[in-house]
Amino acid sequence: MTYPFSALVGHDQLRLALVLCAIRPDIGGVLIRGEKGTAKSTAVRGLASVLEAIGDGRLVELPIGATEDRVVGSLDLQKVLRDGEHAFSPGLLARAHNGVLYVDEVNLLHDHLVDVLLDAAAMGRVHVERDGVSHSHDARFVLIGTMNPEEGELRPQLLDRFGLTVDVRASRDVDVRVEVIRQRMAFEADPDAFAGRYADADAELARRIADARASVDSVVLPDKELRRIAALCAAFDVDGMRADLVVARTAVAHAAWRGADTVGEEDVRIAAELALPHRRRRDPFDDPGLDPGQLDDAMNEAGEAADEDPEPEPDPDPPGGGPSSSTDGDAEDAAPQSDSGSGSRTSAPPSATFRTRSLVVPGVGEGAPGRRSRARNRTGKTISAASDDGYGVHVFGTLLAAVERQRGPGIPRPQPGDVRRAIREGREGNLVIFVVDASGSMAARDRMSAVSGATLSLLRDAYQRRDKVAVITFRRQDAELLLPPTSSVHIASRRLARFATGGKTPLAQGLLAARDVVVREKARDRARRALVVVLTDGRATGGPDPLGRTRAAAARLVAEGAAAVVVDCETSYVRLGLAEELARQLGAPAVRLAQLRADSLTDVVRTAA
Questions:
Q1: Compositional bias (Low complexity) at which positions (predicted)?
Q2: Domain 346-361+430-606: which topology?
């Protein structure tokens, strides 16, 4: 028994976004972002149940581990081998036609599959050109993705492809939380009786959706509101024209939902609240969302632009230009922290981030698709064929095997034993563990600012390469796992914005902490390879024989097979070369902090094989 859609407590914006996409699927779907236990899946299943009343409530769930063949369809190998017939086997997108396609944890889905889903949702059709198959079929569905941002973000290019985005969180209002508990326990005690109490409300909702669908094509979008939409999107400086189109479609759907025949200002505002927040993020470190006051100001300005008569002559000055749009100097303007105290202080604001040199794990892995290191996976380029390994059918290799076996006249008829799989080589994401020296030897304000900026730059690089990241700092007598392995660099950047510094330099503890993370992650995912990036000047103090303990810790880390890179943060005039010595112990390259920028050298950094 499905929990009734009308019984959901709160989440008004979420319910509205789902309804609007049900009225007009070409909006492009809904991405629901939120912490665990916020009824994301419950809302999606409830919507599918409502849509059953109007004939298209089929809910198709796409598993995270689905292959591209299963999603879009492929050559029907059984018919080829049995009957010699060139036939197409439909995938999940065909099953989802006129229904709801639901992707839980869409942020963990491979990027190329997300592209396929969003293309199909936007065009309403699927085109397949692969394995000797050329096929096209309708695929109109309501696309809904859910994700927990703490488990990793979608890349901005993919985030923009979703029509609407809603952020949900559990209410902090005690009365609301009490009602949620009461409703859920009543449902669990007697699902049929509970659903019966909301049957009329869900039926009325289905009727309203059907009526809105019937009238949406006749809703008028006046030029005034069209100009308001264009001015609003320009004011928020969104890229391209997709935002304008989505806001327009959503505004039309909302007008139909409220029974109006013409789009008004309220429709545009609601559409903007749902369609613009996720399109304003230009950087993985930016906070998502849309400030209501800023939206009010933009709506007022857009209203003035909508009332103006269009002028044929372009404005020579670009909108939003001038000194006020500059963001240079933000880091320098931040107030410094006091360095007084007993050897413990807060790190200086990070210096500006930059594009870093490439850090690559040697060899060929088999981990999750990403962009850092070479790997054998299902998303790479086909390089050969094999009979017992690989991803997908290697059609040419299969036919050659059939010809070789048949060795005679006539058309080759492949048999099951002739099937060859495609060996593909692409890229994988790694587990990148940042080990940051936060001790007194690194505590000078300008040095720590540079180290923090470099770490944030490496985090941005990790985000772009689809890595998991972990952050360890070491100071005084111990190391701290500041951030357990995660795919969310936004959270990592917030943790690194300010952290305690000062004290002695337990370098060995930092290396041992990295080794512990490597061991734990191996148990969870043996295919994901680790890259340990140590940012330090190489000094080790505190306790007996600190240098000996560092050598022993380095040996234990090397024994786990983790690749490493040492970023040498020493800035003194007379160099001691301790970071370079640490790099030799780890069998790793050493890169000076000033040389970490990608534009400072022509070669990339590669760890020793």
A1: 290-303
A2: Rossmann fold (3.40.50)
Answering whether pTM is above 0.70, one says no
Residue 340: is its pLDDT beyond 60?
no
CA atoms of 193 and 178, how far apart (whole Å)? 20
Cα–Cα distances in angstroms (integers) from residue 140 to residues 54, 279, 463, in the given order: 15, 24, 32
Compute the distance between CA of residue 471 and CA of residue 481 in angstroms, rounded to an integer.
6
Residue in the structure block whose two tokens are 């999606």 = 44
- Cα first-last separation, the chain: 56
- Rounded to the nearest 5°, which phi and psi values hold at 419? -60, 130
Contacts of residues 380-383 at CB distance under 8 Å and 24 or more positions apart, as own/partner, are 380/424, 380/425, 380/426, 380/427, 381/424, 381/425, 381/426, 382/422, 382/423, 382/424, 383/423, 383/424, 383/425
- The verdict on whether 242 is a catalytic residue reads yes
**Model confidence over 427-479: pLDDT tens digits?**
888 888 989 888 876 665 666 677 778 888 888 888 778 888 888 999 888 99
Minimum mean pLDDT range among 167-181, 270-284, 486-500: 486-500
**Average pLDDT, whole number, for the chain?**
82
Residue type, 146: T
> Of the CATH numbers 3.40.30.10, 3.40.50.300, 3.30.70.330, 3.40.50.150, which one belongs to the domain with range 1-170?
3.40.50.300
Task: Report the C-alpha gap between 152 and 166 in whole angstroms.
Answer: 16
352-363 residue pLDDT tens: 777 787 788 888
Q: Report residue 336 CA to chain centroid gap.
A: 33
Contact (CB, 8 A) for 31 and 143: no
Q: What is the pLDDT of residue 578?
A: 92
- Active-site residue, from 70, 155, 197, 242: 242
Distance CA 7, CA 604 (A): 56
pLDDT-derived band of residue 34, with 50, 70 and 90 as boundaries?
Answer: confident
